[in-house]
Each structure stands twice: as C-alpha cells, then as structure tokens.
Amino acid sequence: MALAEVIIGGYNDAPRAVLDQARDRALHAIALSPDEARCHRMLALTLLYRGRDEYDAVEKHFARALDLNPYDADTLAQTGFFRALRGDGEVGLALLDKAVQLNPMHPTWYYYDRGEALLALGRYQEAAASFSCLPRKSAWQWARLAACHAFASDHGKALACVIEGRALEPDLTIAQIVQDMRMEREEDRERLRRGLELAGWDTAI
C-alpha cells in the first residue's frame, strides 16, 4: 500500500502528506514483519522521496533490505541508484549491473537509474545510451539526455532532446530541474546545470 500510494502520488512529486502516510505504512509493515526485505526497501524509497535530509535513514534501510535478501534485483538496482545519488557512482553502477545480471528482463526504470549513475561518473555516451532506452520520457529525463549529448559534443542530438523536453514542459527551467535533483553533492548538481546550459535548455527555443 505504501508503494501504491507513492506511485499514485507521483513518486518524487508526491505531496508531503502522501509521503508521510506511505512512510507510516512502511514502518507498520516492518513492525509486523521485521525480516521481510521488501518492507525495508519500501521504507527506504519513501524516505528517499522525502528529501536529502533523510538519506542516512534511507541508507540504513536499503542496507537492511540487502542483508535480508542480497539477491533481490530491484533492491540491488535501487540501492545502486541511491549510492550514485550520494556520490559513489562506481559502487552504484556495480550494484545496478549486478541487478541487470540477475534480472535481464528488468523493468524499464533500471535504464533511468543506470543512466543517473553513469552521468554521475561522467560517462556521458553510456549514460545517453541508457536514458535513450526509456520508452516514454518525462521532461526531466529529456533534460538529462540533452545534457549527456551536450557533454559528448553532439549538439544536434542535444538540441533535439531540448525540443522534446520543452514541448512537454514549456516553462521548465534549468533552475527548477537542478532544484528537483536528488543528488546529494553540490558538484553533481552543478554538473547537470553545466550540461543543460551547454545544451541550451533555457535559450535554444
């Protein structure tokens, strides 16, 4: 129920009241079944969406989920994504690659999480390839793809991504995209800002 409420609420964009309720449901689930790894993973995800000030608790519950079930591909992938958000892209990518190995028929969100880890590592062409696998992209995802192409000096593809993203969210600015990022380190958020400026997100159209 906690996961369903977060999904319906829009994940990262879910209202605080929704995230609070989902957190409470996940905590209740852990109280009922403390050795169920998925309960800890759901709590970690809910806390992740609540903001960077919750990251120490997020790390604790992802670690507990992996301790309980180290072969759960989704937990490995989401923990890898979280490690990348905290600035440890190499560890994050290794966890994501292990998740893909365990679950080669994985859901498409793995591509986004892996793209974020590769972007954090400065492996822009590989990040672009991963983001490109997303069958439907939000404006924020088009923005990351545009930045990757811009860093790779493929300005034609970067502009095409800007056009796609701005068509979905005409008023979305670089400042809003960077503010929305969950990257913990300032230098990682600034990297995306530079990429979007190179791509011409605010100025090209």
Describe the fold and architecture.
It is a single chain. The chain has 205 residues and is mainly alpha-helical. The protein has three domains: 1-69, Serine Threonine Protein Phosphatase 5, Tetratricopeptide repeat (Alpha Horseshoe); 71-122, no CATH class; 137-205, no CATH class. Helix content is 73%, strand content 0%. It has helices spanning 2-9, 16-32, 37-50, 55-68, 73-85, 89-102, 109-120, 124-132, 139-151, 155-168, 174-180, 186-199. Helix 3 (37-50) runs antiparallel to helix 4 (55-68), helix 5 (73-85) runs antiparallel to helix 6 and helix 8 runs antiparallel to helix 9 (139-151). The radius of gyration is 17 Å and the shape is globular. It starts with a helix and ends in a 6-residue tail after the last helix. The model has no long low-confidence stretch (mean pLDDT 95).
Brief synopsis:
The chain is mainly α and 205 residues long.
Defining traits:
single chain; 205 residues; Serine Threonine Protein Phosphatase 5, Tetratricopeptide repeat; 3 domains
